[in-house]
Amino acid sequence: LASQWGELMTNVGDFDGKGGSFPAEYMPPDAGLSDEIKHVYPSGYQIDLQDHPDGRISFFYPGKLPGAKNAVACAGQKTLVEKGSYVALHILCASSSGVAKGDISLNYGNGAQTVSIEVSDWATGPAKGEKVALMTRHRHTNGGDAIGKACYLYHYTIPLDASRTLTSVTLPNNPNIKIVDLTLERPAIPTFLAPAPEKGSRE
Fold first, then answer.
1. Which of 20, 110, 171, 196 falls 20 to 30 Å from 135 in CA-CA distance?
2. pLDDT score for 152
């Protein structure tokens, strides 16, 4: 679904089913000085890092050109992942209607585990003590800009069993839960990705 829209066409996006949407002009990806567009941003981006220090987990923000689909309404979709060992599943999402509840199935090679999640409303702020991953200070509606009406994306963390091989994740069957991205956290940085130590440095 188109969860955000630019300020010149505020009546096109529809995150909440009522014509409300995130303001694309204040959402990642940011416009840079080069032609290269950066899509990966840390959780808590554009929020005071002193109050929200968790910048170690990042999320991928899709494009925001007119008509771009940049969020998924959950309907029990199965999402395949790179098979491997992970310690946590991080979810970038919000509810479009009050606190939304749902079950996520963590599908391992030797069985599945079901975890319940409660997702706060995009327009009211965190209701369950969750981390705010992104906040904008106004939103778009059918009638134009709603100045001073903040909207939120939240960061939820689900612990995983690193002793088992994760193969896929089945999303909740609740379309009020809108997911922008999933990030899997490994137990450690793979050796082929870790930077080589500098010459003369001590480990």
1. 171
2. 95
